[in-house]
Records
---
Amino acid sequence: MTTIIKKQLMDKLLVEANKGLELDLEEYKEKCRRQISENMSVEEITNVLINNALENIDEANPNWSFFASRIYLHTLYREAARNRNYEPSEKYGDFYELIDMLTRKGIYTENLLKKYTKEEVKFFGEQISPKRDLLFNYLALHTLATRYLATDYEKNVYELPQERWMIIAMHLMQDEDEGKRTDHVLEAYWALSNLYMTVATPTLTNAGKTFGQLSSCFIDTVDDSLQSIYDVNTDVAQLSKHGGGIGVYMGKVRGRGSAIKGFKGMSSGVVPWIRQLNNTAVSVDQLGTRKGAIAVYLDVWHIDIEPFLDLRLNNGDERMRAHDIFLGVCIPDYFMEQVEKRGDWYLFDPHEVREVMGFSLEDFYDEEKGNGSWRKKYLQCIENERLSKKKVPAIEIMKRIMISQLETGTPFMFYRDEVNRKNNNAHAGIIYCSNLCTEITQNQSPTELIEQFVEHDEIVVKKYKPGDFVVCNLSSINLGRAVSDGVLERLIPIQVRMLDNVIDINTLPVKQAQLTNKKYRAIGLGTFGWHHLLALKGIRWESEEAVQYADELYEKIAYLTIKASMELSREKGHYPLFPGSKWATGAYFNERGYQSEEWVKLKADVQQHGIRNGYLLAVAPNSSTAIIAGSTASIDPVFKPFYYEEKKDFKIPVTAPDLNYRTYAIYRRSAYIVDQRWSVRQNAVRQKHIDQSISFNIYVPNTIRASVLLDLHLQAWKEGLKTTYYVRSTSSDVEECEWCHA
């Protein structure tokens, strides 16, 4: 191909890429021409075009990202056409042939061709809309193409973006009633392809494929036995291998110096077992893409809480460190009360408490704010002279928590009393901790080995009593697009149906997780794009208007989600543990003061028809999927209006979504500038409507005064937050940070 022809093709491509963007290309084209030589391949020329476009991105020129994306799209179209043997000008090839080809290659599951007829598949292919590829900015398309689109085992491009959306829709709707299935597939495709919602990363990656599972996170409970410790480690390894993030509750495990079989001082405590989990996280990576991710939670009254809080620090004895584990602390109201009044705090060994007191502290919580079963049991432990204990000032424990947070970002905070008071299924269990990202709160219990025996003189059989092994099935609403386009009423029913179907389709490597999944049918419908939505509406982050809007919007989302799950229950039946739940008794609605005519009717409908899913709402971090949807992550403020997204293999300039002279003022008050007290207030009103929890980051400079950070934690607890996620601190100077030195 001659240089002249190459430049003619380049000019044609650039004109097409600039449609609707109205960028001035003269200087850009001249720069590209100077860099293109005769011996360059088409791929090399394309890279020149993309890189020069990316260099033009800044706060005043965000559309260069869409321009670069459109050039990159042509690369994907060309590669897919070559591998699938059709003309690149067609953009998308035959959809049925794609499925047939990747099924024969062992990439796609055979169910796509078994469950759907050839005519149905061809019809779905005809509904694919290549124009919706233009919704992607460059970072979004790059992320989707390099991490999620189906390739062969040599990483050759076959599947294109709109085909990924359609494959997900088909996979999740495969077992729906055939009379309505086509409509459900098209609705799911509409929701995904318009970027009104995203599915969780495992679903985005694995739906329609022969390997991997669809759920994001899991939570397991370790019992106080060697058998349980090693069984949990094995289960964690299996889940990590299949791409899951894991939360592990260690609060039942005896502390350092505890007795073993009556011999005092023999236990080495929780630290060695956490180090073992750390090794599992590093050794069993997530499908070769990243190391495993495990969060370990411990109660703040556990005798090992002090060495636990030091696990990720960079100084001290390395034999007592676990740098690859994420930490979470389970905190009762009484601890925060003692911190505030500078009172004493007592640490106990959970094994000794069981032996001496005849109960387990972790099995109780305060049913009311300031009063309840847990503190009564705790005070009994303090008063019992036969029980060994360690007395420390509560504020000293809190100081160690905050020091670790400023150095490592963790521990996460889990306010156990508030979580259990708001548990929809308190009739069936207790919640000990959260997951890796602090948004999931569901009943937990350890799995117990009942017996093991030899059968037929050659088979070893182990029998277990399965515990509640929590599974998180997630997807999220793109607030910036879905609310702006007024589609929530249409979107949420299909989204809930998709999530509910994940439960039945999913293949989980841990059997007790499968059983728990079916028992509660828990889902976690969440949101991202909050800052994006505020910018579009011109609402300042630090304002009463933002707090009020959060309250109203999340009440609407809760209403529509509960209604959708109720309608599904009417169609398919309620989850097994519905009788006796707060859904069935109406307590869920009463606790939140839902008294409007709409809510009263929905409460009656739920009590009459049941609800399909025992847990419904959870706001996850959504960082990767928010990038693909071109919006802001979760409920977080943007990092900056303009920044560089850096990974091991790229550095891409990014602007806040829909950045222009109208939205800049909202985005300018970014993460490390915005007053975090307003963030807590927003999250408190949001939490009222979320039956699980929210991944809520606190952004601070590392020079923040300890008293200010303490006040943030106290505010979060007092205003009813269930969890807080990372304390994200920056070492760089933060302009206009009046609040953090108040």
---
Amino acid sequence: MTTTAAFTDADDPIRGISHPGGYWSRANTAEAASDILSPLCWSFWSTGAEWAARAGLSDMGLLPRSEIRMPTGPEESCLGCFYGRQALNVDFSRKVMASMPGADADDFERDLLGTVRPDAPHVPTSLRRAPVIALRAPATVLGHARKARALHTRHLAWWQDATSRPPLSPLDLLIDAVVHFRRSLRPQMVARSLITAVHATFTSLCAKAERPDLFAALASGFGGTPESDLAQLLWDVAKGRRAGEEITTWYGFHGVHEGNLTGISWREDPQALRTCLDSLAVAPTASSPQARAGTATRHHETAVTTVYRRLGRRDRAALVAVSAFAAIPVRSLQQTKEASLMAIDAGRYAARTLGRHLVDQGTLNDVEDAFFLTLDELRRPLGPGTAELAAFRRERHAAYRSLDLPVTFTGVPEPFPAREAEVTKGELTLTGISASPGTVTGPARVMHTWSDTPPNPGEILVCHATSPSWTPAFTVAGGVVTDVGSTASHSAIIARELGIPCVVNADDASRLIHTGDTLLVEGDTGTVRRIADTGKDG
């Protein structure tokens, strides 16, 4: 019989490879897939995201059509996977974004990481593709909002149908889910490109007005995102105004580690929402999503007025135009993100169904073993040794959970033992990135997954990173602090839309801060201060 000792690194698709000198970042990918990726998770992401990213960039004219293909090596890859963690190829992205009018490579890196490396390779702003961009980008941008809404509607109907009955062929559904995933990520890449350009313009205008502190407020209060609608639905259900079944009908694809196929969705475990709804039930009216959205809108309007008065005529016109346009990519980004999560949940449903079939056939020992085979392997006849291969990969997967990686790294990273929460005493000051304006003081609530005990009304959510499934916690929290992220990350966007002070990229916050610590969060300056400690574990 084949044993796990017979397998090597070559049989482990999530260990990772890199080109020499390749610079990678997990700043935003930690949000997209928060848990350790399984081989099936990674093949789902790599198969869907690589093609979709290139297609979206080509739609904007930033890449030629010939580049809509799978990469031949890691230096051409948009994404990599290292010890089960997804990472973005920063240098590849810098080269592409240098063709974006109004932005440059440094703008992209700053938007992603919050800062630019001192030794970042110089990528000259190129006008070579300007004629193509001038031809393709306007048409793409003009139809972008409509296409994003239509895609969300189609994907929702498909997801509701696909997960409501046993699939005739779980393998066919899994492959169909990858196709839907690709389709959702293509316009998502367009939205991210547009947000980069919008944020670069806001940053430039704030600098000219000598008010860089107003960037977060300028980027706030657009409304109309799916998370805003979900927050209002959760509020109404908690207050007894709407039926709880509506949450799983319209948003059941969210859940614990929702970006991983191995996660558990609300569709599978609706009881996971109960604790959060209990917290919302006692929240004061002033904490309602509608009231908070009003605060965000006022922040935006005040910032626009302040910056406008300090600019010249031409820059004033640019401020008005970009402020009017900025809501479009913010809304479509969240719509397409939800569509991608629908595809992941359908793939999750298909994989678990397929796993049950393979267990019944004696090919696998456990339903969850299906997640430890790749998409290509599942599409081929599975021979002897499949169960042992899955067991080997499960062992590796479990081992990677005890390791951690830097947020940014060069080449294949050197993992280190995952650090536990520290029992720290006294005052503590952390500096991150200003993501959403406002100042709040309150007790901390440290969460490691969204299903942990949620904040009580007014408590400050402290976590590693967030995804749309964290919206219930945002709805009740008084402020948000994350370890990683940027001004374009999920936590930043949703905090701004809900009018919650937020600091992102406050490295190690969830390890150094403990539940019950009293925090002062200054969203305008990106500072988090602990002004009283409890000495309890986070």
